[in-house]
Amino acid sequence: MTVDGKTYVYNPITNEVTDPNGTVISGSVFTATTAEGSTIKIDMADGTYRYIPSTAVAAIGGSERLEMQYKLVDNDGDSKTANSIIDFTSTMTDTVPPFITVDVPSYGTDTTPTITGKTEPNTEVTLVIKDANGDTITLTVTSDGNGDYQIDVTNPLSTGEFTVEATATDAAGNSATSTDTGEIGLFNDQQTVNVYVSEEGLANAIPDSIGIGGDANNSVVASGTLNLAGAVTSLVFDSQNPDFDGMEALTFTGEGTNTLTAKNAAGEDVLTATIDNSGNYEITLLRAVNHANTAGEDRGFITSLQVKATANNGSSDTASIQVSIDDDAPVANVNVSQYVEAAAPTPTSGELLTDGVDVSSAPFGADGGYMESMTVGSYTYTFAGDGSSVEAPSGSGSEVNGSSVTITMEAGNKLTVDMSTGDFDYTAQAGAAPLTIEYTWRCRGQ
């Protein structure tokens, strides 16, 4: 018998098969491997066979034709030559759906966005796009040899959220679906704007270039325009729940309107914000706030004031305004000396909390404050702020009256200091040595 050009000879007397390489196989059965890697076992004594297809042949769409020639000999020595053909066709079917992905821009103002995705190579993809109005668009695209596909939406989508359902169908008719969601926004770049106001623009403040950012903006007003992608029917301040970073928490009134007011714990108006339907906004600081850093000037943040825009179709979009509030802090001398040369007692008055800056009406700046401690000679006096009295050490020869302390020194020299304001009166006798006063201060508003 010849299989794929290789001949096997069977000897019924010895019951042996000799293969094409001359190897003798005991018994009447031999095994041959086909060009496609399949296996066929043939029993030359009775002509029965078993065919085992290879993985490739047995796969979906696989097939193989095996041609054999054989010579039959009977017991009388009569012979006959014939051909036999085995045709094998796999009956396996493809029931596995194709994989598919779809990607759309999560946010943008392009009303005809580009849709991309991936599936099996050269596969048809049907896309169904549904916009915020409920209108649908159906598009068809075929993936390239790498399975990638891309197509632009042909008709403009309305503002608001839209969905894209992508369905891929392979050659066997199997299909798979993937969905993604995007938004046609009302604000270009889904923006957050940052604005800066400063306590140093308030009345009685002390403008300077100290602090974060060098106090580049000593103004209590910040204004600008939100970058709208198109006309809106309303633009208002939405419900507010911001974080307060580095400053006291505030509460808000006016949500759902064009004017927002922020109040402190005492119920005082601290900040107002206005906006119109064209996106023009203005933030105004009305009074100082408590900042976290009590050692010097810093900056507090209202993380976001939410703004809600509504389009003609009722869809809405939000943007946020982050407000930074720069701190104001007092200016103070570490030491103050008064020299008296008159023969008779000569009173001298002034403020301890000035340092070449005219802040006579508000020595502590916009926050307000008080002297926390004061050392005169070997005695230190302390003050805890509004509503308290000066704590004077025993033996100091001083008289306390609320926030004021009067100290009588040797030779009749007398000093009175109001530790809530820094104002002082000093009466020295002729020839008295210069007086040095050392003190620390604390802001009320931080």
Number of domains: 4
- Give the oligomeric state of the chains in this entry, treating copies of one chain as homo and distinct chains as hetero: single chain
Strand pairing plus helix content: what structural class? mainly beta
From the alpha carbons, calculate the radius of gyration and give it in angstroms.
47 Å
**What global shape is seen?**
elongated
Strand portion, in percent? over 45%
Question: How would you characterize the largest beta sheet?
Answer: 5 strands, mixed
What is the terminal-to-terminal distance?
105 Å
Mean pLDDT figure:
85
Fraction in helix: under 10%
Number of helices: 1
Q: Can you describe this structure?
A:
1% of the residues lie in helices and 47% in strands. The chain is mostly beta strands and 446 residues long. A hairpin with a 2-residue loop joins strand 1 and strand 2. The strands form nine sheets. Strands 18, 20, 21, 26 and 27 form a five-stranded mixed β-sheet that branches. A five-stranded antiparallel β-sheet has the order 19-25-24-23-22, with no helix packed on it. It has a five-stranded antiparallel β-sheet with strand order 29-35-34-33-32, with no helix packed on it. The chain is elongated, with a radius of gyration of 47 Å. Mean pLDDT is 85; it is low at 333-344 and 355-362.
